[in-house]
Amino acid sequence: MNIASPSSRVELAGFSRSLAGQDTAALSVSPLELGETATGETSSRVKLGMDTKTCTKCKRTLPTVEFARDASKRCGFKSICKGCDRAKAGAYYRANRDRRRAYWQAKRDEMSAAYFVLRAVRIYGGQCIECGSVEDLEFDHVDNNGAAHREVETLQAVLRRIVRTGQPITDYRLQLLCKRHHLAKTLATRGQAA
Ligand SMILES: [Zn+2]
Ligand SMILES: [Zn+2]
User: Fold this and answer.
1) Given 1, 103, 152, 168, which residue has the most CB atoms within 10 angstroms?
2) Domain shared by 54 and 10, yes or no
């Protein structure tokens, strides 16, 4: 229904009067206000006879000055009050801040892990003992007891221990192999076992 046309104003006003019998408020308000009342959004505006609006979030009925303007809304205001708007912005900021903190913590962890790898690799000679490659280096357990070692100590812990003492660990014999030679050794070991 087109609430903006003059004819509908009469119709609407007459309709509500005939329904309620004595609905004087409906007669005194503009078509626009009637339209808003129909949506239930600003019914208090008609009732109180002043510019108020009920916040859809906190449900408080406040003067419209407590609402930010919003041209896309029929009533010209945002549906939530300025107070709720601020609270929402604050919540967004906090969520964003937590995300940022988590990101940088992960970044720091990553960097410190990379640092320990670099230092430990240097302590172990910095190159594949088979081909001298300095890329894609991996720690290999000379005695093939890596599985047992990993059960009692994480790689990160081993690296920290190496860096802390500044020399190769003595309880497990480690050596550096490039990815290719590490894989070759692993396959050869499996071949022996089979
Ligand atoms: Zn509110
Ligand atoms: Zn190699």
Assistant:
1) 168
2) yes
